[in-house]
């Protein structure tokens, strides 16, 4: 007796259509790319003046590392000068102004004269502040996080950022020097 | 530098920056070995850390909630477990609690977790997070012991100054 002939085939499996195409052969790949939220970059602290002077990558290399390039994730603090619309506000700090697109940020009540902090990415758009030519296009911050920080001591804030920078630089030197 | 050792009940919480937490998994490990943690150039066990930053993302899953804290140096991934049933956790059985006490404990835990999600873990909130840094799938993660929202906008600045002072005067001595 052929044992295998006693085992009927599985008719349900044979009858099932295969909606999916055959899987490709597995290839050696690297680690999976970061998924969703884990690829969100932190906002580098910058002043409004540094953001307004954002240039192309070539010019950033000439100007220095503190300048911002389009696409960078930055964090800025300033006083709200004008609420242009539900989606757009103007922030000012130390004589410089920047337009912020808040349509994608978390809900926040914007009031003229109060201090706000935004974390977001710089984009190249024709802004609403004026100018008509292509040369007048200045960066706009597309904010994903907005926060009311009225009462923030700006001098202490800048001193804190410098202390943090100094500390991290020393840690980096220490770890690279120890290798 | 104080290093948290297993069963070292005197290990204290170090004030750190998110980039130190994110960069603490130096050796991803091979062959399924658990990655080693590195802090200030020393190989350490999972250590207690305090961070202060802004919540930039929140992901809710069935059994836990993860969120990212951005303190302008990096984004640290934090994890809060949802309250498990006290009966399932065998806590009530070990303590020989009555059924009413177990139910009350579960209600309190669920209520506290609900308030945490609605008021503390919101986008744009400035929070202070305390927890244990460990590695998961090759990334550093903070298993949160406590998180509280801080309304004072100068709290981040205070944390930066404190962390820098502690690094200079305590952690490297």
From TrEMBL, chain A:
GO cellular component labels: CST complex
One Pfam family this sequence matches: Ten1_2
A GO term, aspect molecular function: single-stranded DNA binding
InterPro entries listed in its UniProt record: NA-bd_OB-fold (IPR012340), Ten1_animal_plant (IPR029146)
Membrane-crossing residue ranges in chain numbering: none
Protein name (Swiss-Prot/TrEMBL): CST complex subunit TEN1
Organism: Chloropicon roscoffensis
Source lineage: Eukaryota, Viridiplantae, Chlorophyta, Chloropicophyceae, Chloropicales
UniProtKB/TrEMBL annotation, chain B:
Protein name: CST complex subunit STN1
GO molecular function: DNA binding
DNA repair is among the record's keywords: no
Entry keyword set: Chromosome, DNA-binding, Nucleus, Telomere
Subcellular location: Chromosome, Telomere; Nucleus
GO cellular component: chromosome, telomeric region; nucleus
